[in-house]
Specification:
- With 436 residues, the protein is of the alpha+beta class.
- The protein is built from five helices and 25 strands.
Amino acid sequence: MKGYLLTSLVLAALFPGGSDARAQLYVSRPTTGAIADYDPETGALLHATLVPGLANPRGIAIADGDLYVADYARGTVAKFDAATGAEIAAPLLNGLTWPQAVAVSGSDLYVASFDRSNSGLIGKYNALNGDTINRRLVSLIKCPLGLAVADNKIYVSYGDVFGCIAEYDATTGACLNPMLVSHVNQPMDLLLSGNELFVTTEGGTVYKYDATTGANVRSMSRPFIFENIQAGALAISGDTLYVASSQTGIIAKYDAATGIPLSSSFITGLEQDIGGLAIVPAPRSTASAYLEAFVTIREDFFWLLIVGAFNRHYLILLPLAFLFVYVVARWLFLFFEKRLPATPLETVAVEKPPDAPLETTPIAPETPSVALALAVETASPAESAVPAPASPPTPPPETKSHFLILGLAFGALLLAGYLTYLYLSTYFLSKFAEFF
């Protein structure tokens, strides 16, 4: 705990910058013709009319600090500053037929609207200046009500009691899956979060599907949220799902992973008709972002050392790494073997005939320890049986196994450092990108 406190103080000193911006939950209110915003943590009202003067606001979307509002009655899409509600382009688009939902992906603005023949279409426009890219990118046989765009794919909910969720290519408009999710009873709003699709129905329930396969996350086609709250518009921030009731004027909060209610009456007192929801989380200061990333990395460090060596392409490096360890160990062995100290003095008894006197010859008297005056003595056979004084014991020479162990340890250390560098460099970049 003290380490985290010290780290936070250091980061705060290095990165003193902060932000006065706050989180905002936007609610389009068709009855009053305005966009209101609330605190997504406390539910406190921030502005009852952040954006006033609208006729019938429905779907809303936020991107890069801009708020896009589809005005159902006027057939327009307007653009405002999301923080202040100041007008940027009103209208950004006009001449639409009952626009119902909007979505932004990069610099592209997608609008789901009705057609004169009671069918629907999705148009694609430039989100900066409103230029038309393709007015009829996707043609639908029914009126669209929910729209989401991600990873160059368009997800749209439409239909009646046999409604469905379809998937299209966001560039060409080609149909990828006409019934990604089928047999949805009058689908309403649609929300995409990661690889999960949240869908509300006119019956008031919320379902959750896999965005790739269309499979229901609940068994036996059960709803994700069991409470019948007459669900309408949806918004999500982190692990919190906001659901607006189309009948009671209440916005509730749920756990986006489990569907467990967090607050069944988070915001109350709204009109029964809620056109859309959108949320912007509060931006973090540079110091807090670095601190959170530091804490996360510190907690995961030892796990990363284990997982990193077996993650993805690092398996390919393991054989090369072991070969490297062997080469280093072999090189260390040869290097130290040549630098071993000379063998200490050895006394060798030279064989003589039985009648010859015993001679003792000194070997390698180069070192001071061997500068012992060993005289060649002539003795009788009886005297030769007397043992010579024992020389002091010498330490045994280093064995090859010692060098092998040393080499393996050194090579393993280099291997661990190399793999840690490879994995943590990727991890650090991904973490800091996530926190910023």
